[in-house]
Amino acid sequence: MSDAPKSALELALERLKKQDADAGIEQTPLSDEQRAAIGEARSRCEARVAERRIMHQSQAAAVLDPQDLDRRQEAFRRDIAQFESDRDAKIRAIRDRASVS
User: Fold this and answer.
1) What is the pLDDT of residues 11-33, one digit of tens each?
2) What is the average pLDDT across 46-53?
3) Which of 15, 32, 72, 92 is the most exposed place for a label (fewest CB within 10 A)?
4) φ, ψ for residue 6, nearest 5 deg
5) What's the helix, strand, coil split of the chain in %, to 5?
6) Can you give the pLDDT at residue 29?
7) Residue 79: alpha-carbon gap to chain centroid
8) Structural contact between residues 29 and 101, judged by C-beta atoms closer than 8 angstroms
């Protein structure tokens, strides 16, 4: 080990690892299959967001009514939040399978 002082990030990570160990939480490494599944979930979310963003921009360009534009922007934000929520749930499920195995 080096004698260099630890950064605040390193100290915080050590504290979190200790808290997890005290709470009985084990860190299990993900398999290559699980990493690929997580990457696929993230990739699908990015594709859905990009597709929805393109649709929103093309629809918003044709809207003249400010209230209608606000409604469309709110719907866009809800859709993005739902995509991200779905992604996070899938990733959690993949990680939970890792801890069960």
Assistant:
1) 998 898 888 888 877 777 889 99
2) 97
3) 32
4) -85, 150
5) 80, 0, 20
6) 83
7) 15
8) no
Q: Which two tokens stand for residue 52?
A: 């929805």
pLDDT, average across residues 1-5: 70
Residues whose CB is less than 8 angstroms from the CB of residue 80 and which lie 6 or more positions away in sequence, other chains included: 49, 52
Please say whether the beta carbons of 79 and 6 come within 8 A: no
Place of tokens 């709470």: 23
Does residue 77 contact residue 60 with C-beta atoms inside 8 Å? Answer: no
Q: Which of 45, 37, 54, 50 is nearest to 93 (CA)?
A: 37
Instruction: Say if residue 46's pLDDT is above 80.
Output: yes
CA distance 61 to 57: 6
Q: Which of 81, 59, 82 is nearest to 71 (CA)?
A: 59
Q: Are 21 and 45 in contact (CB under 8 A)?
A: no
The span from the CA of 94 to the CA of 30, in Å, is: 9
